Amino acid sequence: MLTPEGTTGSSKIRAAGISLAAGVAILGLKVAAYTVTGSVALLSDAAESVVNILAANIALVSLLVAVRPPDDSHQYGHAKAEYVSSATEGAMIAAAGGWIVLTAANRLLNPQPLVHISVGLYLLAAGTVLNLAVALYLLRVSRAGRSIALEASARHLLSDVITSVGVFAGLGLVAATGWMPLDAIAAIVVGANIGWMGLVLFRRSISGQMDARFPPEEEAKIRTVLNAHRGEIVEYHALRTRQAGADRFLDVHLVLHRSLSVGQAHLICDDLEHHLEEELPGVDVTIHVEPCDASCAVCPHPAQGARSSEAR
């Protein structure tokens, strides 16, 4: 089983390169299977592999852009390039699903005999196993590096695996029963599934372009950290989070005791940022400090944590 070698930009690019090379090999197997059998289901499966290769190229280019460091024109980095890749891939997957359904419907109305089905099934099985291995590898790298472009490629390949399993089952039934329409029916079912998965991916990618907030479980971690510092802060509000590809940003307003010096407030913020980064590695934290009201009952007694931090 392939395993990810890290979560750096170079490992993501390497994964995209592996995806591209595997896509070419898998396409060759599927084209050979279609040529041998004449199955429209295999033709549809091969068509999706063409989309896989195009999508892998798009993902590779987007990652080459996304891993570039911030510059004067893009001071928050280039991570959103991944959303362009995943949205494009989602649209391509949906379009491929529609084409498969139309092609299969035509074959259903005009059935044709199939030949050498067993040879086609062996070739399809080999391509499916390779596809599954690469998909699982990409999924693991994407989760480790929070790459939506690689996740899109992984889910695309998984949809291709589902397609291939459906085609395999359909052709197996054709070989067992001799009823040719099963070939087209299998293609229609998997084509519809592919189209739906593409639409879901496209919608998620567009949401990412709109700076979606962190998942609920990650925001819960943030609140746990903030509540753990209640001995040093009066309260917090205006907590906001957003994601841009692999980059994540958090900003919050802290109300601190008005009697604290600038140095003490700075130490409290540094300690809080460090704690947040331990819980959410790589998060970019921005803190706005506000003094408490003059009527605050705790102000005559500044936080002990702040004094001990200053002493350190």
Structure description:
This protein is mainly alpha-helical. The chain has 2 domains: 9-209, Alpha-lytic protease prodomain-like; 216-311, Cation efflux protein, cytoplasmic domain (Alpha-Beta Plaits). Helix content is 68%, strand content 9%. It has 9 helices and 3 strands. It has a 3-stranded mixed β-sheet with strand order 1-2-3, covered by helices on one side. Strand 2 (247-256), helix 8 (262-279) and strand 3 (283-291) form a beta-alpha-beta unit. The radius of gyration is 26 Å and the shape is elongated. It starts with 8 loop residues before the first helix and ends with a helix. The relative contact order is 0.12.
Question: What's the topology here?
Answer:
Layout: H1 9-37, H2 40-66, H3 81-109, H4 117-145, H5 148-177, H6 181-209, H7 216-228, E1 235-244, E2 247-256, H8 262-279, E3 283-291, H9 304-311
Parallel strand pairs: 2-3
Antiparallel strand pairs: 1-2
Helix pairs in contact: 1-2, 1-4, 2-3, 2-5, 2-6, 3-5, 3-6, 4-5, 5-6, 7-8, 8-9
Name the CATH homologous superfamily of the largest domain. Answer: Cation efflux protein transmembrane domain
CATH topology of the largest domain: Alpha-lytic protease prodomain-like
* Level-1 CATH class name of the largest domain: Mainly Alpha
Helix- and strand-based class? Answer: mainly alpha
What count of helical segments does DSSP give? 9
